[in-house]
C-alpha cells in the first residue's frame, strides 16, 4: 500500500516576537496560512526505513544527514519500516516551513500506513520543530508560545497570494541572533475579516519582527519586497517567517496568479494562487 500526503507551504501573515524564554527560544505571535503550493510525501510499505528525493529542490537535501522525514518516522515508531519519497517543490530554508510541512505530512501518512492509534501527535510534532504542530492540520491558525499554542484564525475572506524566493537560504537561528529591538505585543484580531482589503489593512498594522534582521543578512530580500510592492493590485507585501521568501496579497487567487507571471527576475522562484483546502481523508 502507498499513501500520498500534500505538505503545503506555511506563510506567516504577521510575526511578532513577544518575548524570550529562559532557554533562549523566542515567544511568538503569528497568523499562519497555507497556500496551495507544497511538497508531496509518499509512504509505502517496506521492511526498513528509507528516503528518496525528487522535485526541483530535491538535490538541495541530498547532503542532509538526518532529513526531517526520517526523524518524523522514527519519532512515531522507532523500529518500523517504510519507504518514504519526498517530491521537494519548495525552496529549502526559506521561511515557508517546507521541512516542517514535510514532517507533519509524514506523520499524517505514517499514522494511516502503520495504523498508529493514540499517539500524542502535537507533542511529537513540537519535538521535531516549532512549526510542525501548526502544519499537522495545515489550516489557518494563530500560533503563540514558540508555535505549540494554537488558536483559530479569524474567518478569512477570499484572497490571493504571490510567493517569491530569491534563491538564497537564510538559516532561522542566524536571523533570531541578528534581530535588534524589543518585543511587540500580540495584536487584537477580529472574529472575521469581511474582505481582502479589510484583512490587508489590519495586517498592515502588524509586522514581521524578523524582516529587518533577515534583510541585513540577505539584502536581496529588500529587492524582492520592492518588486512585490509594485505589482498591480497588491494589497500588502511582507516577508514570511525568518525569510527569505516574501509574499504579496491580492483580492483573488486569479489576480495573484497573473501578478506572479509578471515578476521580471527569471532566477527567482515564484508562485501565485489561493489557499490550500485539506482533503476529508485526513491526509
Ligand atoms: C520563524 C518561524 C516562524 O513560523 O518560521 P521559519 O522561518 O522557520 O519558517 C518558526 O518559528 C521557526 O520554527 P522552526 O523552523 O521550527 O525553528 P527551529 O528549527 O525549531 O529553530 C531553529 C533555531 O531558531 C531559534 N528560534 C526558533 C524558533 C523560536 N520561536 N525562537 C528561536 O529563538 C532557536 O535558536 C532555534 O534553535
Ligand atoms: N524535508 C526537509 N525539507 C527542508 N529542510 C529540511 C528537511 N529535512 C531537514 N531539513 C533541514 O531543515 C532546515 C530548515 O528547512 P526549512 O523547513 O525548509 O526552513 P524554513 O522553516 O525556514 O522554511 C534546512 O536547512 C535543512 O537543513
From TrEMBL:
<keyword id="KW-0547">Nucleotide-binding</keyword>
<dbReference type="Pfam" id="PF08544">
    <property type="entry name" value="GHMP_kinases_C"/>
</dbReference>
<keyword id="KW-0067">ATP-binding</keyword>
<dbReference type="InterPro" id="IPR006204">
    <property type="entry name" value="GHMP_kinase_N_dom"/>
</dbReference>
<dbReference type="Pfam" id="PF00288">
    <property type="entry name" value="GHMP_kinases_N"/>
</dbReference>
<keyword id="KW-0808">Transferase</keyword>
<feature type="active site">
    <location>
        <position position="131"/>
    </location>
</feature>
<feature type="domain" description="GHMP kinase C-terminal">
    <location>
        <begin position="205"/>
        <end position="264"/>
    </location>
</feature>
<dbReference type="InterPro" id="IPR013750">
    <property type="entry name" value="GHMP_kinase_C_dom"/>
</dbReference>
<dbReference type="GO" id="GO:0005524">
    <property type="term" value="F:ATP binding"/>
</dbReference>
<feature type="binding site">
    <location>
        <begin position="91"/>
        <end position="101"/>
    </location>
    <ligand>
        <name>ATP</name>
    </ligand>
</feature>
<dbReference type="InterPro" id="IPR020568">
    <property type="entry name" value="Ribosomal_Su5_D2-typ_SF"/>
</dbReference>
<dbReference type="GO" id="GO:0016114">
    <property type="term" value="P:terpenoid biosynthetic process"/>
</dbReference>
<keyword id="KW-0414">Isoprene biosynthesis</keyword>
<feature type="domain" description="GHMP kinase N-terminal">
    <location>
        <begin position="67"/>
        <end position="136"/>
    </location>
</feature>
<comment type="pathway">
    <text>Isoprenoid biosynthesis; isopentenyl diphosphate biosynthesis via DXP pathway; isopentenyl diphosphate from 1-deoxy-D-xylulose 5-phosphate: step 3/6.</text>
</comment>
<comment type="similarity">
    <text>Belongs to the GHMP kinase family. IspE subfamily.</text>
</comment>
<dbReference type="InterPro" id="IPR004424">
    <property type="entry name" value="IspE"/>
</dbReference>
<keyword id="KW-0418">Kinase</keyword>
<protein>
    <recommendedName>
        <fullName>4-diphosphocytidyl-2-C-methyl-D-erythritol kinase</fullName>
        <ecNumber>2.7.1.148</ecNumber>
    </recommendedName>
</protein>
<dbReference type="GO" id="GO:0019288">
    <property type="term" value="P:isopentenyl diphosphate biosynthetic process, methylerythritol 4-phosphate pathway"/>
</dbReference>
<dbReference type="GO" id="GO:0050515">
    <property type="term" value="F:4-(cytidine 5'-diphospho)-2-C-methyl-D-erythritol kinase activity"/>
</dbReference>
<feature type="active site">
    <location>
        <position position="10"/>
    </location>
</feature>
<comment type="function">
    <text>Catalyzes the phosphorylation of the position 2 hydroxy group of 4-diphosphocytidyl-2C-methyl-D-erythritol.</text>
</comment>
<dbReference type="InterPro" id="IPR036554">
    <property type="entry name" value="GHMP_kinase_C_sf"/>
</dbReference>
<dbReference type="InterPro" id="IPR014721">
    <property type="entry name" value="Ribsml_uS5_D2-typ_fold_subgr"/>
</dbReference>
Amino acid at each position: 500500500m502507498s499513501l500520498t500526503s500534500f505538505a503545503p507551504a506555511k506563510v506567516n501573515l504577521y510575526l511578532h516576537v513577544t518575548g524570550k524564554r529562559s532557554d533562549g527560544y523566542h515567544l511568538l505571535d503569528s497568523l499562519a496560512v497555507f497556500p496551495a503550493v507544497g511538497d508531496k510525501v509518499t509512504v509505502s510499505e517496506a521492511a526498513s526505513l528509507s528516503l528518496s528525493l525528487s522535485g526541483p529542490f530535491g538535490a538541495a537535501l541530498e547532503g542532509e544527514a538526518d532529513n526531517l522525514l526520517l526523524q518524523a518516522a522514527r519519532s512515531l515508531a522507532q523500529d518500523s519500516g517504510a519507504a518514504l519519497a519526498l517530491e521537494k517543490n519548495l525552496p529549502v530554508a526559506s521561511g515557508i516551513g517546507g521541512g516542517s510541512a514535510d514532517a507533519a505530512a509524514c506523520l499524517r501518512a505514517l499514522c494511516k500506513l502503520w495504523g498508529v492509534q493514540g499517539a500524542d501527535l502535537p507533542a511529537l510534532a513540537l519535538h521535531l520543530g516549532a512549526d510542525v504542530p501548526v502544519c499537522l492540520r495545515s489550516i489557518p491558525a494563530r500560533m503563540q508560545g514558540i508555535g505549540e499554542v494554537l488558536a483559530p484564525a479569524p474567518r478569512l475572506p477570499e484572497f490571493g497570494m504571490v510567493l517569491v524566493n530569491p534563491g538564497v537560504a537564510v538559516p532561522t537561528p542566524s536571523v533570531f541572533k541578528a534581530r535588534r529591538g524589543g518585543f511587540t505585543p500580540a495584536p487584537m484580531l477580529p472574529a472575521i475579516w469581511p474582505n481582502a482589503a479589510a484583512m490587508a489593512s489590519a495586517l498592515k498594522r502588524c509586522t514581521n519582527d524578523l524582516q529587518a534582521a533577515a534583510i541585513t543578512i540577505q539584502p536581496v530580500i529588500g529587492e524582492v519586497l520592492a518588486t512585490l510592492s509594485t505589482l498591480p493590485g497588491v494589497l500588502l507585501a511582507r516577508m514570511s517567517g525568518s525569510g527569505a521568501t516574501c509574499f504579496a496579497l491580492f483580492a483573488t487567487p486569479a489576480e495573484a496568479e497573473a501578478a506572479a507571471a509578471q515578476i521580471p527576475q527569471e532566477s527567482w522562484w515564484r508562485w501565485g494562487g489561493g489557499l490550500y483546502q485539506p482533503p476529508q481523508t485526513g491526509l
